[in-house]
Design brief:
Oligomer: single chain
CATH architecture: Up-down Bundle
Strand content: under 5%
Number of helices: 9
Order of helices and strands: HHHHHHHHH
Helix content: over 70%
Shape: globular
Number of domains: 1
Number of strands: 0
């Protein structure tokens, strides 16, 4: 049994009902994105469509993988939880840089390698933040992207900075989970799930708003 959270006190598959159930946030994000995805799909190039489909598919995979981990709490379910999250980060970063920032494939490759190296190095730190060290690299990168997004006045210029703030909030709840077990036995990890559904929704929506050809009726709705 892998036990990282307040709510789990035994090896049973129903030991984390709240942590498991709140993964519904990722499914809600998926279904909320579907109408906009369908509306924008015709304006996307082939590569952009691949990125969008990957992001939507990974949203579902994150929801199901995290649910598996918070019910089974073993090594294979841990991988089912961690791998889709990592892939979503890489796909979004690569897709944003290539199709929103419009940088070269070489730059995209360098950025992805830098992201992985930063994650590996920061993840090895022992800062006493309940394993949240591995999420410091995504926080740094999305902050930098949010600043770029605002400075270059992209569609929804504030949205990635908002996403950064929301992610800081969710990371805070993940970090304090074990520290408050004695006063709040169910912990706060479930809030990490709920708020991260919003984070991934916003990331995907930013991509949809900015990638592809101009849809002037869509642009007018944003004005």
């Amino acid at each position: 049994m892998i036990d990282h959270y307040c709510e789990r006190i035994d090896a049973g598959i129903l030991a984390e009902p709240i942590n498991a159930f709140t993964n519904i946030s990722f499914l809600i994000a998926f279904f909320c994105l579907l109408p906009l995805s369908k509306a924008r799909f015709q304006y996307l190039a082939a590569g952009e469509r691949i990125i969008l489909i990957a992001l939507l598919g990974l949203l579902l995979a994150i929801g199901f993988g995290s649910t598996a981990f918070h019910t089974l709490a073993n090594r294979w379910s841990l991988m089912a939880d961690v791998i889709p999250i990592t892939l979503f980060q890489l796909v979004f970063l690569g897709g944003y840089l290539r199709y929103v920032a419009r940088v070269s494939l070489v730059f995209v490759a360098i950025a992805l390698i830098g992201f992985l190296l930063a994650g590996a190095m920061l993840g090895r730190l022992s800062l006493g933040i309940n394993g949240s060290e591995s999420y410091l690299a995504p926080l740094l990168f999305i902050t930098a992207m949010g600043i770029y997004h605002k400075v270059t006045a992209q569609n929804g210029s504030w949205m990635l900075l908002l996403t950064t703030g929301v992610f800081v909030c969710s990371l805070g709840f993940r970090t304090i989970d074990n520290a408050i077990c004695s006063v709040w036995p169910i912990g706060t990890h479930f809030l990490w799930h709920l708020i991260n559904g919003v984070v991934l929704f916003l990331c995907t929506r930013v991509f949809l708003m900015c990638a592809g050809e101009k849809d002037y009726s869509f642009e007018a709705k944003l004005a």
